[in-house]
Amino acid sequence: DGMITGINMFDHTETPGLGTKIGATDFLEGFYGDVDPFSLDGITGATRTSNALKNALKQAKEAFELAKGVL
């Protein structure tokens, strides 16, 4: 059904105390479900990582839609 059900962030090099929230479970869970990643706020101090995460989720949804038509 194209829902995001889990996200693993293996590594990041964000500023300790500011950008490290990017890997926090409660932040990542905000992207679960059928959410437009670009409708959610990023993390102050982790702008590049926030944008990369949003782009990765957008690409995952697009890949799902393409695969759905093939499978």
What's the count of strands? 0
Unreliable runs: none
* Strand percent estimate: under 5%
Largest sheet: none
Overall mean pLDDT? 82
The coarse silhouette is elongated
**Derived structural class:** mainly alpha
Distance between the termini: 13 Å
Task: List the total number of helices.
Answer: 2
Helix content: 25-40%
What string gives the helices and strands in order?
Answer: HH
Work out the radius of gyration: 13 Å
Task: From the structure above, extract its key features.
mainly alpha
Please describe what this structure looks like.
- This protein is an all-alpha fold.
- Helices cover 39% and strands 0% of the residues.
- The protein has two helices and no strands.
- The protein has helices at residues 25-28, 47-70.
- It is elongated.
- The relative contact order is 0.20.
- The mean pLDDT is 82.
Write the layout of secondary structure elements.
Elements: H1 25-28, H2 47-70
Would you kindly provide a brief summary of this structure?
This protein is mostly helical. The protein has helices at residues 25-28, 47-70.
